[in-house]
Amino acid sequence: MTRFPPGPKSRYPGSGYFQFRKDPLGFLESLAREFGDIAGWKIGRQHCVFVNHPDFIHDVLVTNGHKFLSGLERAKRLLGEGLLTSDGELHRSHRRIMQPAFNHGRIATCAETIAREAERARNRWGNGTPLNMANEMMRLTLIAVARTLFGADLESEAGEIGTALAATMGSPPNMMLPFGYLVEILPLPAIRKMKAGRARLNETVYRLMNERRGNEEADLLSMLLQAQHGTPGMTDEQVRDEVMTILIAGHDTTSTALSWTWYLLSQHPEVEARLHDELDKVLDGRLPTFHDMPALAYTESVVRESMRVYPPVWTMWRRAVADHRINGYVAPAGSLVVMSQHVMHRDPRYFSDPPRFDPERWTPEFKASLPKYAYFPFGGGSRRCLGEGFAWMEAILVIATFAQQWKFRMASGDPVVPRLLFTQRPRDGLTMTALPR
To answer: What is the pTM of this model?
Structure first.
């Protein structure tokens, strides 16, 4: 006999939702601490099952991934039927179309553009220049994605687009709320901003599509437009959905990872010094290239450890199509099975002294011994991030290019607190000062 997993007692209707919404990370951490590797709670009438063991995560994402849907119904109001939200054959066919834009050769071609854009950014600064590094990283990654994947120049619009994106990004507790879409009928200022942001993004995406139509280049947008002539052909709306998905996922997660990396380096000068030493030895003053990446092993470890301590995507979930057994319990049909990169990446069973920022832990031996889904910043299974290789390349090259010339220090001693939207961003940005090395 199977049963729903144990979990926190509901003190009043909706208490599970309000606890989760008030302190999402604290709530999930408490589930892991009090109930172990599997726990259950309800958001209204919505059953949720939290799993916190690599084997259970592997079961949901890989072994039985076909038994789950994306669970991102609310996100469809912005992303439509893009890769993050679509299911079944539509998801599989669009992923096949888009895959060539992220193959090894194409990523290598994009690397020079990204290093040059990072060089342009670093050359604008002087000794003591005040910077909001979160905004700088958002701007840089947006420009890089637009140039490399869409063949477009969005530099002059980066600020507006960033503002529009921030207005449209939902938080997981709200996205998981049953009938949460009904909130959009309320005449609230935040709802008006969200709708205006969505309209601004739609205008940008459709304009890019019209400008690129008929082009035979190998960039992602051209590939999608060319696929309109296939069988079955993609509609304009389907192309729009995929472009919107990549526009958001392709720069928001990477910019967030970079922001936290600069923050962590500013707090750990001994790590920063070793990073500088590697860059000086490998690059000797020149810009990094795609072919330098194997030699930039410590730089990669810095990024990898940053995404362990502050994973950009801090939680994810899937919707069960039918009752599914997990470790003797049942996730009922229609329930959401929740996994948290933040909680898993700080599990002391797999990471000694979890809060400590320690890039040196990522030895080849440690990586080989680590259970696969003890660390999963890019998800897994058939929905594993299509642009993972692109994101690694971009993050490593940006860190290497900036850190060749600059180090960054916090402008004040105020604590840096995460803002938990779909990604885990610094709540008030990162006000830092650029200092020459």
So the answer is: 0.93
